[in-house]
Amino acid sequence: MKRLARWWPIFFRNTTAGDHLRRHRLLTSVVLGMRERWNMLLIVRTIMIGVMFIGVLYSVAILQPKIQTVKAQITSFESLSPTDPLRLEFGRLHGRSFSVNAAVLLLGVVVVFITAFTMKV
Question: Which residues span the domain enclosing 98?
């Protein structure tokens, strides 16, 4: 129970109905894939969903707190020089966050296409 209490604020802090809907879509996608015979595309899709989950977890649990810490130390971006270590660190973390989120988005698009082509209605 302590583990759940530790992770609860990370996943459910500032959540909206859309966030909950996305979680349900992810679970529904996995469950509907289990309905059918597992072929290579469904296995790849499930692995991609797992990678997406790990990417979101990394972004929320690791990158977000680091970005907030660096951002709290910066008083104004206009007053910082381009070579300031805080500005460089913020840019590096922001770039990593962008890359992870873009990868999750692209994997999500691929998962949608795999789901569309493999599911029988």
Answer: 26-118
